Each structure stands twice: as C-alpha cells, then as structure tokens.
Amino acid sequence: MKIVILTGAGISAESGLGTFRDAGGLWEKYPLEQVATPEGFAANPALVHEFYNARRAQAAAAKPNAAHLALARLERTYPGEVLLVTQNVDDLHERGGSQTVWHMHGALNRATCAACGHKWPAPMQMQATDPCPACQAPATRPDIVWFGETPHFMNAIAQKLATCDLFVSIGTSGTVYPAAGFVHEAKRHRADTLELNLESSRAFDETRAGKATDIVPDWVNSLL
Ligand code: APR
C-alpha cells in the first residue's frame, strides 16, 4: 500500500511546541500579518527575526515525542511506500528518525536571502543586518513559506496524492490551503482517508480523536 502522511502542529504539541489555533496558540500571541507575511518582513524584519529566533530556540530545546518516533518506525519497517509531508517547520520528525520529510512550509533550521534566493543552514539567532553569505545583501530571512507565498513540493505532492492508497492527516486543523485540500485530492483519486487529531473533522472516511502520542503509535502498530 502507498501511504501519504500530512502532519501539522498538533504532532509537536506534546513536545512543548505551540500550535497556531488552539487556545493560547501562536496566532493569539503574535499577529500573523506582522510575523508570517512578506509584507510584515519588509515592514519590520527585526520583529520577524525575533519571532523565528524564539521558535528556533524552542524547537532546538524540544524533544521528538512518541508520535514522531512511531512515524519513523513506520517509514523504516513498512513494506509499502510511506511519504511524510509536514506543514511544521521544526525538525522533530528528522530528530525522531524520519529519513525523508517534505517540509512544504519551509524549515526553521534553514535561512534564505530575500535578495538572491541563496539558502544555507540557519544560525540559532538571525539578525536583519546579517549579510547574505552569497550576495552580501542584508536581506537574510528564515526559509519559511509565509502566507501569500507558494508552498514547496506542490507538484510532487499532487502526484503522490493521485497514486496513494491511503492519506493520513495528523495534528492539523485543516484550515490552511493548499494542505487543507489534500484530503479532497486523495478522495478524488479513490484513496482511503484517515484523520488522527485531537478534534475530528468531517472530511475523512475515518477519524480517530485523541492525543498524537497515543493514537499515532496505536495506528502504526496496527499496520506493522
Ligand atoms: N495531539 C493531536 N492533535 C493535537 C494535539 C495533540 N496533542 N494538540 C493539538 N492538536 C490539534 C488541534 O486540535 C488542531 O486541530 O492540532 C491541530 C493544530 O492546528 P493548527 O494550530 O491550526 O496548526 P496547523 O494545522 O499545523 O496549521 C497549519 O497554518 O499558520 C499556518 O503555516 C502555519 O503550518 C501552519 C499552518
């Protein structure tokens, strides 16, 4: 069986990383227009760097949880094809042992230059005045896909959704497109769809409600 998995902030919640839309979530604390849009970066790059420096430090201090470890075990031992796509920008999937992780919204541990597009491993703390290692412009930014920008791997993800047998959504509210549309894409191609989340939505053939560290290992065990 070919499985495509999409994860969201909920899979890292029990590692202590904030989600976006739960009570007390990141978008309650920070206006997303100011810290997660190109316009916000142009207006106040220092504030944007402050926001991502804090998230980079939190992610570095966090540990992968049982859900991350279970997905890595699935990738290692499942006889079929497993593709892990994540909306998350932390590296807990990799640190939990997943080898292939498609970060469609970018990654905290990577930096890019707003002037020339060069990419490099992000230092723990970035400043707006840091010169780009390639073109020297003081235009360095986190390599994160902001609202209004195009997520990565979209064509490749569409191909995988068109040929998978099972699409599994874990720890995402399904409110941000294009990721929120993946379940409909998978259904259009007659894949089965499963949601593992604290809250259940109606779009899936099957939904299991619970904490990721409980229901993800249970699901992986049922497959192996
Ligand atoms: N176990 C399982 N699910 C959980 C847990 C948990 N311990 N804690 C929270 N959740 C669920 C919530 O019920 C919610 O449905 O995780 C989901 C988190 O939803 P959001 O905060 O909206 O995060 P996400 O869906 O990843 O956001 C998508 O929005 O702001 C953009 O780019 C950002 O990638 C992000 C995208």
Provide a descriptive summary of the structure in words:
There is one protein chain. The chain contains nine helices and nine strands. Helix 5 packs parallel to helix 9. Helices cover 34% and strands 21% of the residues. A six-stranded parallel β-sheet has the order 3-2-1-7-8-9, sandwiched between helices. Strands 5-4-6 form a three-stranded antiparallel β-sheet, covered by helices on one side. The longest helix is centred in the first third of the chain and has 17 residues, at 45-61. It has two domains: 1-17 and 64-105 and 151-224, TPP-binding domain (Rossmann fold), CATH 3.40.50.1220; 21-61 and 110-144, SIR2/SIRT2 'Small Domain', CATH 3.30.1600. The model has no long low-confidence stretch (mean pLDDT 97). By secondary structure, it is α/β, with parallel strands linked by helices. The chain is globular. The chain binds adenosine-5-diphosphoribose. Adenosine-5-diphosphoribose (APR) is lined by residues 8-10, 13-14, 19-22, 25, 87, 105, 171-173, 175-176, 197-199, 211-212.
